[in-house]
Design brief:
Length: 263
């Protein structure tokens, strides 16, 4: 990760964050309802969580598959260099082969954005292999979500040491909940405190930002509140209604604004 991210991380570590809602505190953070949402549902772009109602209660599928495809392509492009770095062998040759595979069949701006996401990740994966900071790295490790009331397995994009890192296309602010959930899941699994996570966001214009998220009790409480609200919506079958501000990148936007649905 960039040096300024490490500097911010060290500052948070030195502050010795006090948090009561640690992942190992099952009495405080354990499930309160029978339905357990996924991290994707927890951090979805829909403010009212109507997307969960439409998929889980109504059984609908989002009509706009293009946004989901773009997100999946860029997500894969970002993670592939780290997968390559964890394999023995000639890294540069492996990176070249994997980049060709990621870009195969892509055209136009999507190809350019995927190449940029790959190159950014490749830069940091290479520095991890050849540099002096060799913290353990795991790509999409499977962590138990049930101790914190989430779906059976949760998978952060990366875990560097004990720091969850999540990649997102578009606005990264909603991913605060995701990295906080991953931090709590790590705490439940490893019984070590996790005080921060990192969100990496890529804009359609090609800008990449790295943001350190402090996982304090305020953010942890938001995770639990949103988790319980999603569970309430699904269990009661109540339609929460269209959000006042429907995000442009929400794949359900056509359903809420135009009534377009696909069974």
């Amino acid at each position: 990760m960039p040096d300024y991210v490490w500097e911010r991380a060290r500052a948070i570590g030195a502050a010795e964050l006090v948090a009561e809602l640690r992942g190992w505190r099952g009495d405080l953070v354990g499930p309160r309802r029978s339905f357990t949402p996924t991290v994707s549902e927890l951090s979805s772009p829909c403010p009212s969580k109507r997307d969960v109602y439409l998929s889980r209660v109504m059984g609908l599928k989002p009509p706009d598959g293009q946004l989901l495809r773009v997100g999946a392509v860029l997500h894969s492009a970002f993670l592939e260099p780290f997968r390559a770095a964890l394999r023995p062998g000639r890294l540069m040759e492996e990176l070249a082969a994997r980049k060709a595979g990621v870009l195969r069949g892509l055209t136009g701006q999507l190809r350019r954005r995927a190449a940029e996401a790959f190159d950014v990740a490749a830069s940091f994966a290479s520095s991890w292999v050849f540099g002096g900071r060799r913290l353990p790295v795991a790509v999409e490790p499977e962590l138990p979500g049930s101790p914190i009331g989430l779906s059976g397995v949760v998978k952060p994009d990366l875990v560097v040491g004990v720091v969850p890192v999540d990649f997102v296309f578009g606005d990264g602010s909603r991913k605060e909940l995701a990295v906080a959930a991953y931090a709590m899941a790590l705490e439940a699994a490893a019984l070590v405190p996790v005080n921060f996570g990192v969100v990496v966001s890529l804009s359609w214009e090609g800008r990449v930002s790295w943001r350190v998220v402090t996982v304090d009790d305020e953010l942890r409480s938001r995770v639990l509140d949103v988790r319980d609200e999603i569970a309430r919506i699904v269990e009661s079958g109540d339609d929460p209604g269209r959000a006042d501000s429907c995000p442009q990148l929400c794949p359900w936007r056509g359903v809420c604004l135009e009534g377009a649905v696909r069974l």
